[in-house]
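Q: What changes when fe (ii) ion is included in the input?
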Amino acid sequence: MIEPQESPDGEDTTASATATLPPPPPCERLSWHKTNICSRSYFMVVMVFFHIYIINVIALLLYVHYNNSQGDATPRPDAPSSDHQLPESHRPPSRSDFLRDISLPRVEGIRVGHVQKVSLVPDKVHEMRTLSLKPLLFEIPEFLSEEECRVVMQLAQLKGLMESQLMVQEGQEELVEELNLSPEEIFNLLDINQDGQLQLHEILTHSRVRDGIWLTPENLREIYAGLKADKDDNGLLSLEEFRLLSNDAFQRFLLQRGVKRSQLVRNSRHTWLYQGKGAHQVLQDLKKRVTRLTQLPSALVDLSEPLQVVRYEQGGHYHAHHDSGPVYPETACTHTRLAANTSTPFETSCRYITVLFYLNSVEGGGETAFPVADNRTYDEVSLIQNDVDLLDTRKNCDKSNLRVKPTKGTAVFWYNYLSDGRGWVGEQDEYSLHGGCVVTHGTKWVANKWINIDPDYQRQARYQQLVSQQPEDEDDEGLKMSPDLHSSDLHQDL
Ligand code: OGA
Ligand code: CA
Ligand code: FE2
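A: The predicted holo structure follows.
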């Protein structure tokens, strides 16, 4: 890295130095002085080269030193978002800067198909298989016993399950008005290939979901026909055709015609089960097992969302989605809202890990699909091609890169975020896109254990401080590894 820059400089300097040397002495005329004079000029040339060499070495050392100190001064990308603070290089290191040395362990995938033995409960060794690297995804058969599956389903029934998605949420169409965009501006934003026409996939890429209703290319064609929107019937909307539609025209058309549950993003029922002190032993055991599996500090698992138990009836589905939101500077995590300094316009779930448990074996369908797992690239626009929407788990699960069959007792888990390279949570892993395929026969029961971590380290630390109600000096415990958990004795390669 350094050498290619240094050697051309060296050569240039050498050339110019040689050019300024005095002309060679007249060796042939002064023969008795010949060796003397010639050796002096030889000596001078050697000295010049020697100096250049020394200068080069010094320059090289300075270059290396300068580069290193520049790296140290660069503020870390996850530095606190409070803009009023001095850059980190200008501040004396605070306690929380030292705390950042804490590294979140991340289970290694090695390669797809790799199996590692894990010790999660006494007297049993589980096998954990790597299913994909993008996202980092694992499968652990027999994670729960039959009995545990039964207890979790019964506890959920006892508590009562509610519809995962309400039929219609009103008021979203106002957003477009609030944004104050003209029809021309909206048209231009939607027209990805800028050909002056809106193709079906251009509309769907941006507005696949409106008011919780999932649009398919077929729906869109029906809407065009119903509203006589596509006057020249070429399957495309021109700006003139688009201008005649109101913002909520599609929505109103669908609502008037009546929306079925199968047209929603998610068609299931769910409930939440607390896993803290006093909870059913099975739920507490499960939490402990998840802590061992993920190797995370127990405080992080303890402070995460409760267990979500989901039931899909025959015909149920969940279209492909991310469990967690992207990381923007203005984004706040729902779970650390308490610790946010200001109210932020965007709030999202920050679910570092999803652990999904299959509580029964499904008779038909109901796989968990990962449409773009281990794809070479992730491109939002190419998720819909030729009217095939890879996110549609009612129609296109067979085109997903990876599908996990629901088997009673099996757990799968994956990371929704990448590492930031320094032991904390980094960017969202877009490849973690997944969904529940339509259940064709029987019912499907699953449970989700999400582990919430704020990608903003300071906010997570502040939140843990707040909830633990401990004086500042004791709070570090919250993020420390529990002493009984050491990854090396948990995971052993096969
Ligand atoms: C979820 C989910 C997948 C499935 O509940 O968030 O993605 O297979 N479920 O049910
Ligand atoms: Ca277009
Ligand atoms: Fe999900």
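Observations recorded in class: Residues 318 and 436 are 5 Å apart (CA to CA).
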